[in-house]
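Students often ask why we bother predicting the structure of a whole assembly rather than each chain alone. The short answer is interfaces. A chain on its own may look different once its partners are present, and contacts between molecules only exist in the joint model. In this exercise we take two input lines together and write out one structure for the complete complex. Read the inputs first and try to guess which parts will touch.
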Amino acid sequence: MQHLIWIIPLMPLLGAVINGLLGYRFIKTLGEEKGKRLISQIACGTVFISFLISLFSFIHLLLRPVDQRVLVNTVYTWFHIGNLKTEVSFLIDPLSGIMILVVTGVGFLIHFYSIGYMGHDEYDEQGYRYVSYWRYFSYLNLFAFSMLLLVLADNILLMFVGWEGVGLCSYLLISFWYRKQANAVAGMKAFVVNRIGDFGFLIGIFALFWSLGGHGIWTVNFRQIGEHAYLLAEDTILGIPAATFITFFLFLGATGKSAQIPLYIWLPDAMAGPTPVSALIHAATMVTAGVYMIGRLNFLYSMAPVTLTLVALIGAATAFFAATIGLVQNDIKRILAYSTVSQLGYMFLGMGVAAYGAGIFHLMTHAFFKALLFLGAGSVIHAMGGKQDIRDMGGLREYLPTTFRTFLIGWLAICGIFPFAGFFSKDEILWNVFNYSHPVLPFLPKLLWLIGLLGAGFTAFYMSRLVFMTFFGELRSEPAEPHGGHGKDAKPQGPGGIGLQGHGNEKIISLSPQREPRESPGTMTYPLIALAVLSVIGGWFGVPHFLDPVFGGHGGVAPVAAETGEHSTVLEIFLMMISMAVALGGMAVAAVMYLIMPELPDLLSVRLSRLYELLLNKYYVDEIYQAVFVNGLLALTTASARFDLKFIDGIVNGSARVTAAFSTFNGWLDLRFVDGIVNTLASGTIFSGSRLRKVQTGQVQSYLFAVLGGVVIIILIRTFI
Amino acid sequence: MNMIVLEHYLLVGAILFCLGFFCVLTRRNAVAVLMGVELIFNAANLNFVAFARFGTLNIDGIMFAIFIIMLAAAEATVALAIVLNIYRQLDTVNLDEADLMKG
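Now the answer. The structure tokens for the assembled complex follow.
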């Protein structure tokens, strides 16, 4: 089994290469229908094979004794420089085992769903056809490959390759419909914001590498880093404890990839991409990379209580603020996007209180129900002909029964209703937060718990609002016409931030246009059903205990959450009751506002218009970023340009002028002075020559006479002086 | 005999040299110039012989004198050949007319 691990990431890569290079030819030679079928078979088949191998590896792992659940597959030595030997090797332990199951399992379902969703060609405003089908699946496979590489990597450098790979693929997929400016810009925004985080991640890697190297341990391998991490306890970098420094910068990378404050702004805009992409990238895989990374390096984070506190604070803040923004959004995908940001905040909150198992657990259940919700939303958008504004929808439960039922399950799961998946994982996190004993700030865990609880209430509210407005009541508008009304179907959502309101405006061209929402084809509903099943049973997997071998054994370097010893069942049940009550309360409020008294929301939005505007505009964060960073940079650029023009160019021109003047002077000097000297010398020589030639008479006697005169003079001098 | 000492010889030699040099400087005829040169040679010979007799040169002085006489003979031969050639070229042996070396 161990020797088959490398096939897991290889298969999607193979699919990406085949489809990327030959996909267009398939369609050309086999015809539209057969070609597309072949392409989707390759794309889904490769991921499915990966899933099967992942499943076998996982079972193999389960059959082993608890302390031997590590499978390593070294493929080849990547490079060997000095003491550093870096191998391309893959590691499956309980942590990455769960991750590959999520990535390949949910990934496969999303691939499958895409067959239906992307089945029709896309045209832009000018009627140009996107050469899309094969390109889409090639990107999707490439993304799966990168994510598997990230997850399976046995060393941090290989992980970084996957880390960058998913960044690239997210860029490619978000701006998949690249002819729309908003989409292209959204992809760029995601990429650039991620690069900021990646920069921090790289600093973290280097700091880690050099700090360990200072102790003679030159390695990037996770297990070796784990073995020797204790060496860093006494180290400092720039006066900061080494572990804190390293984990801080690694966390910066995580905030970028996992869309946490302050780098979360790319994710809502990223909804411009096709909906399955949103489900894959923004629910199941890429955005969880940061959480996974913290889990993978948990021993380092446990050594850095300051970073852990920061992680918890950022997580709680993100969970809360994103939830409040979600309250008033009207775009179905945007609500889910903010919900994702918020749920990721919960994961980080869990990680931040050293409850790594709970964080990963939530990551897994979230992958199930959020993928389900995204795909359900995709099904709704499909049925509505590309409309994404929930104010245009309503009453869809009659038209889309399967979508409705599965969506309901996802809704209950994310709200945290017993016994759906979200309940267990969210409760696990909140329970750990509540029981966490912070060494310096004793009130902090309770405060974080309260924030988390409030966020959960908000989540229940806005998700209920989404469900009620979409599926209940009366249908408020017809599905968009297949070819017309492009760009009109999505209502503007207040002033755009950084001008990037990636609205998506996905236009699905139905082969048989009709004016009534119709249930999506089987390729789209089957994955919904599968994910709904997972969302129901996902909570019973007992993941945290399964992960104990990975997250245990860090020897209590950090104040770990209260373990089984003081585990009070009564308290736990009480807390469960509270969070259930909060969730039900949120749902009830939403029911009152959107089912019983539909005029209430408008009333409230008028009464609380300031708050409403603030939330609707997402706290103006995009605008602040625009003002501070973009405009600031532009101003800096203008100033630099001016400085360049006035000062640098002035210096350059001045020096040029000085040089020119100097040259003129030099020329003058040369012509008049140097040439003068030379000419004078020459003419002097000619003159003296013309005089001296008279002396040379050619008469030996006169020469002799001169000699006589000279001798006489010498004698006289010798005699008298 | 004691009246005649080295100075007398040297005085005669100096007179001879001056006469020879005067002759070399003033004569226009190349043959006469050569005769002046002979006088200079002989002035030198006289000095050498005198130093051999009264000074410390002894036999060496006489040997130098004999060598100079030989050289003078050889030089006279060569010089006369040159003079003959000048005459053939310029139809004269007047030195002031042979100014081909003028700058």
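Check your guess against this: Residues 59-90 of chain B form the longest helix (32 residues).
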